Amino acid sequence: MLNVPSQAFPAPGSQQRVASGGRSKVPLKQGRSLMDWIRLTKSGKDLTGLKGRLVEVTEEELRKHNRKDDCWICIRGLVYNVSPYMEYHPGGEEELMRAAGSDGTDLFDQVHRWVNYESMLKECLVGRMAVKPAVAKGNYDWFQTASLVTIVIYTKQKDISLDSIIVDYQDGSLRAETIIKDYAYLLHMGLCHEVQEEFSVRAVENVGKIEITLKKRQSTSWKCLGQPLEKHNSFTPKKDSDLRYRKCQLVSKEDVTHDTKLFCFMLPASSHLQVPIGQHVYLKLTVKEIVKPYTPVSDFLFSEFKEPVLPNKKWIYFLIKIYPNGLFTPELDRLQIGDFVSLSSPEGSFKISKLQELEELFLLAAGTGFTPMVKVLNYALTYVPRLRKVKLMFFNKTEEDIIWRSQLEKLAFKDKRFDVEFILSAPTSEWNGKQGHISPALLSEFLKRGQEESSVFLCICGPTPFTEQGIRMLHDLHISRDEIHGFTA
Ligand SMILES: Cc1cc2nc3c(=O)[nH]c(=O)nc-3n(C[C@H](O)[C@H](O)[C@H](O)COP(=O)(O)OP(=O)(O)OC[C@H]3O[C@@H](n4cnc5c(N)ncnc54)[C@H](O)[C@@H]3O)c2cc1C
Ligand code: HEM
């Protein structure tokens, strides 16, 4: 089933539409309606001219396909032959041609990021863009002073930030992995002299460079940086880059509810790693070779009770529910302060860019499915300029199961944009809040938009059946796929 929002969102003539450049739809020729397009895509006709083959497209190749009758456009790394779609495009052929033979992602997003091009153009897929080094080989550099060695990685990404880079220094070798769009760029060297464990990492956002500053153990002048190690100076699709672990020390552990605890781990001095919002890491115990994923939380809901956070962000917090019969969590719970756990590189598909233009954010969480919401909530309230409202609907069994209830209530009290509602499936008779499980009725009440045309986003996380059912119900309520992020395994 094609997921084309039939009631276009935002509504025609709304502020949001007018704001994005006075576009207008063009009259389409007879036989060129959306239904006709769907029929054509289902007809089995070869719409790419490649007989179903997928190819790797270089930039040079892409540029060649820039005519109406031979028009390729790249969106989010995938290249489509849009020539067959020309006459069906509601925005007209000229509009579509603006992206001919090039990367049309930004243009597409500016006009209608909600359009489900992936399903509409499924039969027009030509292939992926070839691995194109965003950093050409040799595009890192280094310089030194008497006591320091600074390595500079030029990413050519203006929005590069400190959570895009993971650096580990061990036994004389330095491994720095930079995430650039969908690729991981690796700098991997055996350094030619010793350096101290601690180093600093800095992102210079406006020029898209990352600087790693190492402290020399001896103030000799280095003739070279070192020897290249495995996969040095190469790009790997992000999804294929392997999970690496580093040993973290348990700093503190506190009860949050009767079965959920807040664990704080400290990264080693020789690692730089920040888990991006909405992503998780794997924890591994040495006792048994078991690995389980967990989503770090930030300290913003409880920090007022704490010592100031270390400025270098060496601490990582997790809210973890202990299952007495579980495989992993009882072992984790047995760790003493000072013990070690291995922590992987981050993983996950959540894109922070989804939140940037947001006006209303809805969060649906069940039990420990609350964990990804913490950072999302903090980010939205702090960095999203047009945000008017955040609503959290938090499902639990009983009152005792609610994580950080008083902190959430306090936040709702002090920030009028934020609202929280607790729904219990097995409350005591004293409970006078909402009861039950996730349902279309609860959702449609919850989702009432402040303003019809505001741009909304919705995150959902909980046990798999909760998330899956929830997403289905949301589709039935005409929330489009683009407006939902489900945190799933
Ligand atoms: C992306 C992601 C992020 C996550 N983030 C967090 C987080 O931040 N915090 C958090 O607490 N959890 C999180 N989880 C869940 C976490 O990964 C573990 O699944 C959880 O901690 C349970 O681990 P366990 O090995 O202790 O329990 P398990 O051994 O998996 O058992 C869990 C429960 O199921 C029962 N059980 C196990 N096997 C069976 C069976 N065959 N039949 C019936 N019952 C059974 C056990 O008795 C126990 O009660 C996340 C999961 C994912 C996928
Ligand atoms: C990248 C270059 C593109 C540009 C500049 C562009 C431009 C436009 C414009 C100006 C409109 C009219 C806006 C309006 O509804 O008021 C439109 C509508 C539309 N375009 Fe595009 N478009 C592009 C690519 C695409 C692609 C690749 C698809 C693939 C499916 C697509 C699908 C649609 C659809 C479905 C509509 C109607 C949307 C609605 O009813 O809200 N467009 N486009």
TrEMBL record:
One of its GO terms (molecular function) is metal ion binding. It comes from the Eukaryota. Residues 54-130 form the Cytochrome b5 heme-binding domain. Residues 243-353 form the FAD-binding FR-type domain. Its cofactor is FAD. CDD domains: cyt_b5_reduct_like, p23_NCB5OR. It catalyses: 2 Fe(III)-[cytochrome b5] + NADH = 2 Fe(II)-[cytochrome b5] + NAD(+) + H(+). Its EC number is 1.6.2.2. GO terms for biological process: superoxide metabolic process. InterPro entries: Cbr1-like_FAD-bd_dom, CS_dom, Cyt_B5-like_heme/steroid-bd, Cyt_B5-like_heme/steroid_sf, Cyt_B5_heme-BS, Cytochrome_b5/Flavoprotein_Rdt, FAD-bd_FR_type, FNR_nucleotide-bd. One of its GO terms (cellular component) is endoplasmic reticulum. SMART domains: Cyt-b5. Residues 1-27 are annotated as: Disordered. NADH-cytochrome b5 reductase involved in endoplasmic reticulum stress response pathway. Plays a critical role in protecting pancreatic beta-cells against oxidant stress, possibly by protecting the cell from excess buildup of reactive oxygen species (ROS). Belongs to the flavoprotein pyridine nucleotide cytochrome reductase family. This is Cytochrome b5 reductase 4. The lineage of its organism: Eukaryota, Metazoa, Chordata, Craniata, Vertebrata.
